[in-house]
Structures are given as C-alpha cells and as structure tokens.
Design goal:
Length: 339
C-alpha cells in the first residue's frame, strides 16, 4: 500500500474520531449548563476561525503530523476539563482546529493536483458530529474511551513524522497561480461559496427529515463531500460545479419529496473538496492558510444562526436560490483563478 493511501486512511478515521469525541463532549457533558450558548460560540470560534493563524504556523513549520497529533492531545485533554465548561470548550475547539489543519495540509500535499483525497478526508467529520450528538452516545462510548482513542491517534500521527524529518515537503504541482489580484478575487469567491454552504447547512429544514430519512440526509452530506472530489477530477472543476449545483437547485425546488431533497443535499455538498482544492492552488506554499481561510468562512456561516437571526433563505425556492448563487460564485472564482 502506498504511504499516501495509508495516511489518507489514518487521517480520515482520525477526522471521524476527533469530531465524534468533540461532539460527544459538547452534547453529553457541556449541554444544559448555564454557559452552553457561550460554550458553543467559543468552541466554533476556536475550531474554525482559529484554523487560519494555526494554518499560517503550520505552513511555516511544516510539521503536519505533529500539528494533527497536538490536536488529538488537546481534544483528549478537554474531557478532564469538563467541570470548567468554558475551558473545556476552548480546549476541544483548539484540538479540533490543530487536527484539521495538520490533516488537511498533509492530504493537500499528498494529493497534489487531485481533489479526490480531499473529499475522502473531509467527509467523515459529518458522521462524527451526527453520532457524537446522539442521545445516549456517552453510554455507548464513555469519555475515557473517547479520550483514549484520541491518544492512540496522536501516537499514530506523530511517530511517522520523525522518519520523514529532513525530507523536502511535496510540491503542490499543477499550473502556475493566477496573478495576485485575480487570485485574491478568485479566493474571495470560494470564501463566499463556503459561507453560503455553511449557512444553508445550518438552516436546511425539511418536513420529512425524521427517522430513516434524517440519517439519509446525513449520509447525503458525507457522500456528497466524498464524491465531489472524484467528480471534479473526472469532469473538471468548472463542469463539475455547474452540473452538481445546477442539479441541486432543480431538486431543491422538489425537496418536499424526501428522495429529491436528499439528492439535492448530496449534490450541494459536492463543492466542499472543490473549494479546498481551488484555494490551495490559488495560494501555493500556503496550504494551511488556504485551509484555514475556508474554515473561517464556515464560522461566519454559523454566526447568524447562533445569533438567532431569522433565516434569509427558506423552503425549496430559497435553497435553490442559494445553490444558484453558489454556482455563480464558484464558476467565477474558477474562471478568475484560471483553474
């Protein structure tokens, strides 16, 4: 088995376990506390907004495995800090951020000009959050087991890095980046696409989203992110974006049907690896900063919901409008970036 394939498997499983453990901690031990709303804000800020400065440091240091391992250690330490909810939430969020930056940069380096591996890496997180937030999850996986699993992943990720020390970091490959202003404008388009995807993911509401169809919607998110990378590599990013987002807009108009709504969610989430791939190409040598820039966009998409603002886009027509807006922005960004 190729080292890149093995690393992809380990980091993808680690992504599931980190997100599962953080969600389990937040929803089993911290929810219901008087500081719950502030815990949610602090966790999301640390987990997503702080990936940008952490990514800058990772780009400078080049220690992807140790950055990811540090994330696992911090996420494990959040469990004994649970009696101090705010400290626990901050520690878990920082751990989540460090793991995602270290893992994301490593997968970007390994995958070079392809995006399929990115989709595989990012997709398990949605499963982790879903299962970690389920009622009774801590009875099935107690806190000590969650923290122990994180410690194991920390060892798996940190030890191989010692053998790779002194080797040159892989080159990102691919065409030359776009000129400065065009690259910045293209990155801005990708940033707005992620803000929209984050926001819509928070406000999606379907009358059929109960029971088996609720699990189906989560599977659609996971599989959509995984499939998006393969689809983009096979068809080309612009055509893949047009087809996936165009079809999702059409299906959102029919989303009163569970099958159509689930398919729309699947297609809509295909853009996750596409935007990550594009951002990394626009910022050669700055994979960590590229990754962190887009996760900061995720945080901005979360804020209106946390603040309790009424949804701007509702119902099938509103979701379709958001999908078409994402299509326009992503197509424009890919064009300006010459990707």
């Amino acid at each position: 088995m190729k080292p890149e394939t093995l690393r992809l498997g380990v980091y993808s499983l680690g992504h599931f376990w980190v997100d599962f453990s953080c969600a389990l901690l937040m929803f089993s031990l911290l929810s219901g506390r008087g500081e719950w709303a502030l815990c949610v804000l602090l966790y999301n800020f640390c987990a997503f907004a702080l990936q940008m400065p952490i990514g800058l440091m990772a780009d400078h240091m080049g220690r992807t495995g140790r950055t990811a391992a540090l994330g696992c250690v911090l996420a494990a330490l959040a469990w004994p800090f649970a009696p101090l909810p705010l400290l626990s939430a901050v520690t878990a969020g920082l751990g989540n951020a460090c793991f995602h930056v270290g893992g994301g940069v490593q997968i970007l380096q390994d995958s070079r000009e392809k995006s399929a591996a990115l989709g595989i890496f990012v997709s398990p997180g949605a499963f982790g959050i879903c299962f970690g937030a389920l009622p009774g999850a801590q009875d099935a996986v107690p806190g000590w087991a969650a923290a122990g699993g994180l410690a194991l992943f920390a060892l798996l990720l940190a030890l191989p890095e010692r053998r790779r020390e002194g080797s040159a970091r892989p080159d990102a490959g691919g065409p030359e980046p776009a000129p400065g202003r065009r690259a910045l404008a293209a990155l801005g388009c990708c940033f707005l696409v992620v803000v929209l995807r984050s926001y819509l993911g928070m406000v999606f509401s379907f009358p059929w989203k109960t029971g088996g169809w609720a699990l189906g919607a989560v599977c659609a998110v996971v599989l959509g992110k995984a499939a998006g990378g393969f689809f983009g590599d096979w068809l080309g990013m612009t055509r893949a974006a047009v087809l996936s987002l165009g079809l999702s807009a059409a299906l959102f108009c029919l989303s009163a049907s569970p099958a159509a709504g689930t398919a729309a969610v699947f297609l809509f989430n295909m853009t996750m690896p596409m935007t990550l791939w594009a951002a990394a190409r626009l910022l050669p040598g700055g994979n960590g900063f590229a990754f962190g820039t887009l996760t900061f966009a995720l945080f901005l998409g979360f804020l209106p919901v946390w603040l309790g603002w009424p949804p701007l886009l509702t119902g099938g027509a509103g979701y379709a409008a958001g999908s078409l807006c994402s299509l326009g922005l992503l197509a424009l960004g890919l064009k300006w970036g010459r990707l």
